[in-house]
Amino acid sequence: MLLNLCLTTLAVAIAPTWAARGRLAPRGSPIPSPTYAYGTANGGALDLPVPTPGPQLSNKAKEVGAFNADRVTIGITNAFGWNLPISYNSNAGSPTIIGNPPAGTLLAGTNTNVVVPRNFAGAIFIGKTFNPANSKIEVSFSSPQDYRPGLDVSYVDGYSVPITCSCGGLPVTGCNIPLFRTGRTCAQQGPGDKVICYNPRKTVDGGPADPFFQPCQGAAYTYPNDHQANAFGKCDNGDIQCCVGVGCSSPRQQHGKRSFEEWGFVNETEIPAGLA
Question: Could you give the C-alpha distances from 175 to 14, 220, 267, in angstroms and in order?
Answer without folding.
Answer: 13, 6, 19
